[in-house]
Specification:
Chains: A mainly alpha (174), B alpha+beta (134), C alpha+beta (361)
Helix content of chain C: 25-40%
Strand content of chain C: 15-25%
Shape of chain A: globular
Number of helices of chain A: 7
Mean pLDDT of chain A: 83
Oligomer: heterotrimer
Number of strands of chain C: 15
Largest sheet of chain A: none
Low-confidence stretches of chain C: 14-31, 352-361
Order of helices and strands of chain C: HEEHHEHHHEEHEEEEEEEEHEE
Radius of gyration of chain A: 16 Å
Number of helices of chain C: 8
Structural class of chain A: mainly alpha
Helix content of chain A: over 70%
Largest interface: A-B, 42 and 36 residues
Number of strands of chain A: 0
Chain lengths: 174, 134, 361
């Protein structure tokens, strides 16, 4: 991965270091939240999506996608869940959140970072449910879990959005 | 850590679109959840393992239902018009903690085992056919 | 550029998504004695199908389901007239040239059952209706044919001229169509035969199953919760509701013929695909009829025959037959539905009230 980053022309060492730092923050967040007991195992709160959002607004979609993907894989490897159900859920949820947040930024009427974060949080939930239904073959039964999870996704999205907003305002542009 | 930490400040920092989006998602999920949940006594518990409907258990008589989930044996019990997961080998035992369910629309789930239980009401439960001649 | 970094990252990660260990098979052995329903859906006989099997062992259930579908496809292949190599097509090709065509035991059974149903119904069901069906353009895009064209083809319809030569010891049965231009169309009965054959195969594994081929159904045994299989009859005018729901005893086939499937509005009149072999035109007088019979092949043929016979003669014919039951739905002026049923239906009806309105006819 380091080779990929260094071998890319135009990506300065400073940017690479920054991305690396962000990835490690995201991984830390994801590992930390996996320690929180959840009513439904394998499901993630999506705190690490805050990093995805921050990278999205400051460095663009491609960078955000890269950071998210690396974060998910590294967390999976470090936690030992790589390839397993939790990994699949975080992959599908994390990617869905990244894509939805990228689109949400261009919504009209405009959404602030808070709204984008809520959208990402909801997409995170739906992406995980979709993975449960299809990849893990649980089928449409997972729909029964949707109301509760979506309802909690909104306050969670607002809180993570608030953190991102605060950091975004305080830290000078890259 | 930041001035945005209190709920009131968060609300003030939201744009109109933010509020509409959040309110809509909340409203939809609450309506969905409430709509599925009735307050009346359910008549039958539909038990699904993964995508397979494995049993339609009437709630009007006591029963003990041993099943095989993905992680191992998982047992349901029906007593006094309600159903609960009484034994499961899952890591968090959330399902057993969910307790006894009896109202239409209530659900029980043990995700690691692939078990879902949904309570259906009298009329709806009895009328769902196995096939439709057309 | 970041783009290249992303591209490399994608190449690294993409193969990981194909890790086979990720998705687990939903197959799992159950504790001894726990019976579950295994369902397989498929596309066969030109329609969607669903077969449910109540069994303990998932591997045996899956292999029984696969064998059942294979049998349905085999029957379809020999009975269809839409491929020239099928047995039915070969019989059609030899029409009128005096040649006796050897048939398999399966086609022999289908043709025998078809002729019997034609005899019993006085020709209301007739397997030699092929030329008229083709004239109308069913099952594709129906067109209103010229009445002269219909009159010209009517003489080619006549089950009495579908002739079986009794086979000598150890030889295959042989059939022929007497006149040039005659054509069999087994669409009204092949499905029922396929269902019976599939049922034979499933019975080797379990006595409890339900076969549903596009609404033609056969049940055996009961559900795992020891309740009888429940089948609802489609409401002929409101697809979101049922006309009634029946609890079926073991070994019953149920089939509905209606004017709401395969129809077209031609010249302002609904023309559907159940043609009266005597007139060459779609049978009127009924919206739908549902027949219950002890096997699929009789059920299938009689659902067409009863539809053509209509609410009075059809009801009488079905009532008189001790093996058959039926529900006849016709439309009165003003769109109100009149439902008539034979006497054996009442005790099969579920006690919960049907969702659709019924008026007693």
């Amino acid at each position: 991965m380091k080779a990929a980053v260094h071998g890319a022309p135009g990506l300065s060492a400073r940017s690479a270091a920054r991305l690396g730092l962000l990835v490690s923050i995201a991984v830390t967040l994801q590992i930390a939240e996996s320690l929180i007991p959840r009513p439904i195992p394998w499901l993630r709160l999506g705190l690490a999506n805050a990093v995805t959002l921050l990278v999205l607004v400051r460095a663009g979609f491609r960078a955000a996608l890269l950071v998210t993907a690396i974060r998910i894989v590294l967390s999976g490897l470090l936690l030992g869940t790589f390839g397993g159900p939790a990994f699949l859920l975080s992959l599908s949820g994390g990617m869905a959140a990244a894509v939805v947040m990228a689109f949400a930024r261009f919504a009209t009427p405009p959404l602030s970072l808070l709204g984008v974060s809520v959208a990402g949080s909801a997409a995170h939930v739906l992406g995980q449910l979709a993975a449960l239904a299809s990849l893990l073959r649980l089928g449409s039964s997972v729909a029964m879990l949707a109301p509760l999870l979506l309802a909690t996704a909104v306050p969670l999205g607002l809180v993570t959005g608030a953190f991102v907003l605060a950091i975004h305002r305080r830290v000078p542009p890259w | 850590m930041t001035p945005l930490d209190s709920p009131k400040k968060i609300w003030q920092a939201m744009t109109a679109a933010d509020r509409i989006l959040s309110a809509t998602i909340l409203a939809v999920s609450i309506a969905w959840g409430v709509g599925a949940h009735g307050s009346e006594q359910g008549a039958v518990a539909v038990v699904l393992l993964g995508n397979e409907e494995c049993a339609r258990v009437p709630l009007d008589r006591d029963a003990f239902i041993p099943l095989q989930g993905r992680l191992g044996p998982i047992d349901l019990e029906v007593h006094g018009g309600a159903i609960a997961v009484v034994r499961s080998d899952c890591p968090n035992h959330v399902c057993t903690a969910m307790g006894w369910k009896r109202a239409t629309g209530d659900v029980l789930a043990c995700v690691p085992n692939g078990l879902f239980v949904r309570i259906e009401g009298g009329a709806a439960g009895a009328q769902a056919p196995d096939a439709v001649a057309r | 550029m970041r783009a290249r970094a992303l591209l490399v990252a994608a190449f690294v990660f993409l193969p990981l998504l194909f890790l086979p260990s990720c998705a687990r098979e939903s197959r799992h052995e159950s504790a001894p004695g726990v019976v579950r329903i295994f369902t397989r859906s498929g596309l066969v006989m030109g329609t969607t199908a669903e077969i449910k099997v109540a069994a303990v062992d998932s591997t045996r259930a899956e292999s029984a389901l696969a064998a059942a579908y294979a049998e349905l496809e085999r029957v379809e292949a020999l009975a269809t007239i839409h491929t020239p190599e099928s047995e039915a097509s070969r019989l059609n090709a030899a029409a009128g040239n005096g040649e006796l065509v050897e048939t398999s035991a399966d086609l022999d059974a289908i043709l025998t059952a078809a002729v019997r149903a034609a005899e019993e119904s006085g020709g209301a069901f007739d397997p030699t209706i092929g030329p008229i069906v083709r004239l109308w353009g069913f099952p594709g895009r129906p067109v209103l044919p010229d009445s002269a064209a219909v009159r010209k083809l009517l003489p080619l319809v006549g089950y009495q001229r579908l002739i079986r030569a009794a086979p000598a010891e150890g030889t295959a049965p042989r059939w022929r169509l007497a006149d040039r231009g005659m054509q069999i169309d087994l669409g009204g009965i092949a499905c029922g035969y396929g269902i019976d054959r599939a049922a034979q195969i499933l019975r080797r594994t379990t006595p409890d199953f339900l076969i549903n081929i596009g609404g033609d159904i056969l049940v055996s045994g009961q559900r795992p919760d020891a309740k009888p299989w429940t089948v609802a009859i489609q409401h002929p005018r409101d697809p979101s509701t049922f006309l009634m729901t029946l609890h079926l005893p073991s070994g019953i086939a149920i089939s509905t013929s209606g004017d709401y499937e395969h129809f077209a509005i031609l010249n302002g009149v609904r023309r559907h695909h159940i043609l009266d072999p005597h007139t060459g035109y779609p049978a009127e007088h009924l919206c739908s009829v549902t027949i219950l019979a002890p096997d699929g092949v009789r059920c299938d043929a009689w659902s067409k025959a009863a539809f053509v016979l209509g609410p009075e003669r059809g009801l009488q014919a079905v009532e008189e037959d001790p093996d058959l039951e039926g529900v006849f739905v016709s439309e009165a002026d003003g769109g109100k539905l009149i439902v008539r049923e034979t006497t054996g239906i009442a005790r099969l009806r579920s006690t919960a009230p049907a969702q659709a309105d019924r008026s007693n006819g």
